[in-house]
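User: Please fill in residues for this 564-position structure.
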């Protein structure tokens, strides 16, 4: 009709343009906001890292504190932020720079001030005191109020209420608390620096001021061992001890860390190795290097906190099969103070390849636990090969043992190591031994094997002398296959006991066979393996951590003495 208005052609295009514009805004705006937030987050991270790098504090980020926490600057309740693993300060992200300037961290070495050297005062920080801590003045519980309250000394760990804090406490000398016999005081290191400038080395006279019970402890932790608990343990030890005593062996090799022993009195140092049996072997090798350098007077005694998968050496020395945080770090230090010194045999394993034109030097290994050829070495070799490909997948003890179980079950069906007795010759102290139809031979230095099995003593009424790790003797046993190994693990069978010897010689005549020394496996061709005594290591034995097998073995030993 003529009276009706026709829509203008441009009005439809204008509406479509609005739709396109709003669509673009709805898509691009979230992208822009996300990009802007990520940019700001990156800037904050760079800013924090810059503060961390320049700071004397040991700052670490955390997305969630494990218990109610309050910022030491603004006193507000915080869920995330940063904390210092040396002095225990906790701050919000926005207060990090202020806290870094306002609060002083632990001083590992004091300034040469005569008053400070004679008696170092307490170093108090306010708030976030440990749960169930008590005031040293009124003996009532501290930190019970939901706010930033009460004080804690970062050296002796004593706590005191706000209202109980007096000027006398602020000026009182710090005695370093319960672990004073393990802590290296900053004043001691300051005096050592002064003595070295004066070219004096009489450290015993300086240590006499700290008492006869002073046995300083050095922590060597492997942050990559087992369940990756090393990082957390490093921080807890730094809070209880002097940070200069705590080392991560993945960053500072043991041979460098152990040079701290040369600043201590003769035969006074102790070392706590936090890691698996491989880490312990690494530290003991470094101690052997100290002997070569003529530093025998500074050799420390070694304790073990088991973080690995098998931990047979730790179990033999009474430190248990694994540490998962079930006991506090303070109790670990108490156990170290109560431990007794013993000796551990260390053995040289020499592998000489066969061949007319073999010009290579024999391979040499140092053995602390055991040497084996056969199915258990094959399981270790397969496990090691897969762990090298994807190390991040093997951070759980349960998963690691499940992988071992898988390869053990596979070998039960395949039997790659059968007819071992036809492929090898075995000599004990120079005498050849006739072997039955075996698949594996295991040479033991310690009582435990395979993650907690007492292999030599076995089970049943038949009495065998207890395996010792300090008698200069090796125990040699045989197994009939992977299934036999599994039966031994669950105490349904005994190994074939071949004998004890001071020297073991094994000749592999043909074919490739898997071998291992202390869990380090490899595939070996025809060769001669010779195991001889190398040296002793000074270890610490803790008698308070005994398993059922230890108790039964001790009772068996007492019965043998009674019959004699």
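Assistant: Residues filled in for all 564 positions:
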């Amino acid at each position: 009709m003529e009276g009706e208005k026709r829509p203008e052609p441009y009005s439809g295009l204008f509406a479509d343009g609005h739709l396109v514009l709003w669509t673009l805004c709805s898509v691009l705006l979230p992208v822009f906001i996300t990009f802007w937030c990520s940019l700001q987050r990156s800037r904050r991270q760079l800013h924090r890292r810059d503060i961390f790098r320049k700071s004397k504090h040991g700052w670490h980020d955390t997305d969630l504190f494990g218990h109610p926490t309050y910022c030491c600057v603004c006193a507000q309740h915080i869920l995330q932020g940063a904390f210092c693993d040396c002095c225990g300060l906790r701050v919000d992200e926005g207060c990090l720079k202020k806290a870094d300037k306002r609060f002083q961290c632990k001083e590992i070495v004091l300034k040469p001030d005569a008053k400070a050297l004679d008696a170092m005062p307490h170093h108090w920080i306010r708030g976030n005191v440990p749960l169930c801590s008590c005031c040293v003045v009124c003996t009532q519980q501290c930190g019970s109020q939901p706010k930033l309250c009460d004080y804690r000394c970062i050296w002796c760990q004593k706590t005191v209420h706000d209202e109980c804090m007096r000027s006398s406490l602020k000026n009182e000398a710090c005695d370093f608390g319960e672990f004073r016999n393990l802590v290296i005081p900053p004043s001691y290191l300051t005096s050592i620096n002064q003595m070295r400038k004066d070219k004096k080395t009489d450290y015993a006279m300086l240590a006499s001021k700290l008492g006869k019970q002073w046995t300083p402890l050095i922590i060597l932790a492997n942050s990559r061992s087992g369940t990756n608990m090393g990082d957390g343990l490093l921080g807890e030890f730094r809070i209880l001890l002097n940070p200069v005593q705590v080392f991560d062996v993945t960053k500072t090799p043991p041979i460098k860390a152990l040079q701290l022993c040369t600043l201590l009195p003769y035969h006074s140092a102790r070392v706590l190795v936090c890691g698996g049996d491989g880490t312990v072997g690494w530290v003991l090798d470094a101690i052997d290097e100290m002997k070569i350098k003529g530093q025998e007077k500074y050799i420390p005694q070694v304790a073990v906190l088991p973080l690995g998968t098998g931990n047979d050496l730790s179990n033999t020395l009474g430190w248990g099969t694994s540490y998962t945080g079930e006991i506090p770090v303070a109790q670990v230090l108490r156990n170290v103070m109560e431990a007794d010194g013993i000796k551990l045999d260390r053995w040289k394993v020499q592998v000489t390849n066969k061949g007319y034109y073999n010009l290579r030097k024999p391979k040499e290994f140092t053995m602390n636990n055991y040497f084996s050829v056969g199915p258990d070495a094959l399981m270790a070799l397969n496990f090691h090969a897969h762990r090298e490909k994807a190390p991040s997948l093997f951070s759980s003890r349960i998963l690691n043992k499940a992988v071992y179980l898988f390869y053990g079950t596979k070998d039960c069906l395949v039997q790659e190591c059968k007819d071992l007795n036809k492929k090898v010759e075995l000599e004990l102290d120079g005498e050849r031994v006739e072997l039955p139809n075996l698949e594996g031979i295991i040479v033991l230095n310690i009582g435990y094997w395979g993650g907690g099995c007492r292999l030599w003593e076995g089970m049943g009424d038949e009495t065998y002398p207890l395996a010792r790790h300090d008698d200069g003797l090796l125990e040699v046993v045989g197994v009939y296959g992977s299934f036999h190994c599994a039966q031994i693990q669950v105490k349904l069978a005994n190994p074939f006991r071949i004998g004890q010897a001071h020297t073991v010689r094994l000749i592999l005549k043909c074919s490739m066979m898997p071998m291992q020394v202390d869990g380090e496996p490899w595939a070996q061709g025809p060769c001669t393996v010779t195991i001889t005594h190398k040296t002793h290591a000074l270890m610490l034995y803790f008698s308070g951590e005994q398993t059922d097998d230890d108790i039964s073995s001790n009772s068996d030993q007492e019965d043998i003495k009674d019959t004699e």
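For context: The first strand starts at residue 59 and ends at 62.
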